Amino acid sequence: MSTTALVCDIVRFSSVDGPGNRCVVFLQGCNFDCIACHNPYTINVCNNCGECVGVCDSGALSLTSIGAVVWDPAACVGSDSCIGWCPHDSTPKARSLSVPQVLDQIRGPAPFLSGITLSGGEATQQPAFVAELFDAMKSDHKLNRLTRFIDSNGAAPESVWLDLEPLIDGVMVDLKALDRDTHMAITGESNDEVLASIKLLYSMGKLAEVRLLLLPGVNDSPDALARTGAWLHDIDPLMRLKLIGFRCHGVRPNGRVVREPNPDAMDSYTQIMRDAGMSRIVAI
Amino acid sequence: MKMHELRSVGRSLIGDHSLTYHQRVAKLANLAEEALDAPAVSDECAEALNKRIICDMFEGHAPYRARYLLPDYELAIRQGSQYLELDAPTDLNEALWFLMAMYTQVPSITGYPVYLGDLDKVLGPFTHGMAVADVVSALRPFWRALDRILPDAFVHVNIGPDDSVFARAVLQLERELKQVVPNVTLKVDRNRTPDDLLLDAVRTVFESGHPHFANHEMMVGDLGERYGVVSCYNSLPIGGGAHTLVRLNLAELVRQHTGDVETFFDVALVRYVELASELIEARVRYLVEDARFYGHLWLIDEGLLSLDKFSAMFGVFGLAEAVDQLMLMQGLSGTYGNDQLANELSYRITGEVAALVANRPLPYCEANAGRAFLHSQSGIDSDIGVTAGTRIAVGSEPGVFEHIKAVAPHHYLFESGVSDVFSLDSTARANPESVVDIIRGAFRVGMRDFTFNLDSNEFIRVTGYLVRKSDLAHISDGARHSSTLLGAATEVASHVTWRRPKRMVSHERASAPVALFGAPV
Questions:
Q1: How many CA atoms lie within 13 A of B92 on its CB side?
Q2: Do A249 and B510 count as a contact with CB atoms less than 8 A apart?
């Protein structure tokens, strides 16, 4: 019996989740609860409260006799009203898929891809599935050409990365803040594991990119950014560093009090990172 | 056309100040041709033409020049030309002037040469040891002159599949000059074309809409190593070409069909493929035997073209509407591009047409063993409410993956070209590698031709040629490029600017910012 994962969504073509054109598998469930989360419905696993069943206009949701919420993809029109209504930061549309089922989804678009990216949620929360999927891709003669990437919040223990090391080509890690208290304020968790993961992945040669999501007034002070730049520079001045300006879209009301940075602010972030000696900066 | 009508049209052409002098001359010549009797065909064929179920592309009543000619420029450069009174050039500058002189003496249906050569091969020998920047400097005035002297976007240059300083220079010039002319095709071979060249080409499309991409291995399999992509994605043998192009309007054929789906296949399609073939035969015979076009053509005399490398082209268009109508006849609502049954029906149609065309011998078509080349015809300005070739209707295109999957199974049939235009969301700009992946994938799954454009740049690809949005904005004052005039009409007729941009991120997930972040936050 193959391991299964709770999959929120599979996107066949994405030009924004790593090198080249990639198929992205979004796994449900995250160990952070970030104020700036763009897809908060991926944070929790559905608790079958049934609140969403009544708001679905297309009759795609139902409650079974044992109290489980069931989603019918054929009836769904994709209005996402269930996701908007969910009081629990989840979705009734996540499905439990086995490794062969996910592989089947990848085979169609495979000729058009550079690789696969596992995202989320937090993919490393379901490490056995990640390992099994990547291992199966590696031994499949039609899929082993594809590179295997993970989009991660970095909050995974060393043992997870050591297990995955032989199976992954790269990991893109988010660093919400270098400062522990700021990190706690944004994510609700400490950043000890995140910082350790960045160093460990670099030492493995698997650190594809570090991403800083910049929230004006929260984690963008010149001083904090300069220290972050210095910390990253110590690890690798040539690492690919992506600076992402916060955008309100999809964010829950408590996060929308943060404003979006203007182009001047983005330029100043870039300049601070350059001054810190970072040379491969992408700002979006 | 009656003589008094002819006079009146002639007068209005002469008085039309939105036309340049050369555009007026060309239109007056066409008008004069209309005064002659068309090559004789059966009444049934004439009626089909009259009903526009078959279409002669308004090539004119008296075919006196072939539609597409692909002279062997490599040979011309090597041997020089008696006709042009030019010796074989010995350096790059001489070669460029040699070509420019030659281009003015190459006929075609448009009056301008539709093929300027595989220029990396033609001129490559003169660029040994030069850096890209040096080739760009040498080429820049020539490239500008092409656009000014041959103001017609059907004028087409080929490069690739191998990387070269020359190919890089062409791409750099395209990005720099952003011209409508020349149209450019990059031949792409899985093993010979490096990713880096393809990447450079993709970035060039972001800036200039050029180049178009051709599946080199597939073309070579059908046409041999020496082929060119000309005009609007017509792939034909170098040293030959196409006498004429007659196309079958599948949409109109279904619209006027009174039986059911099976009689459409068994009777209507069979009959109209034959009627279109009859028209082709009449036009080819007129061109070769009556007009004796090849009998007094310097390109033939000097061995730069030969009649046995010519064939005719059999085009189809309006597949999308035909399929949707045939589905409705069966009480089914699925549409081409968005429904598996509809797609399967579309493959049956093109498969049947291909088989019928392959069974219809035609004279003077030795380039394809005495048969016409099949072509998915990408439209002309007067096509109103009819989708070009075998494309999915503008505005109903599904996501890129589904789009390619739907249209790719047609491509192997159309050895003389098939075009599907993919309009990509501008997020692709930040990740050109993703477009390289898609092009490689498209060719892996059997697409012959691939062309894309970004929704945000200055160019619109109309049928296969480009127009500049800024030129369309001033169209009432006329346009230097004849093709831009056609583009204006097409834009109005079929709203190509409504082509649905492909999101390079998911349809399913909320919107761009989600995907921009990608990672959980």
A1: 21
A2: yes
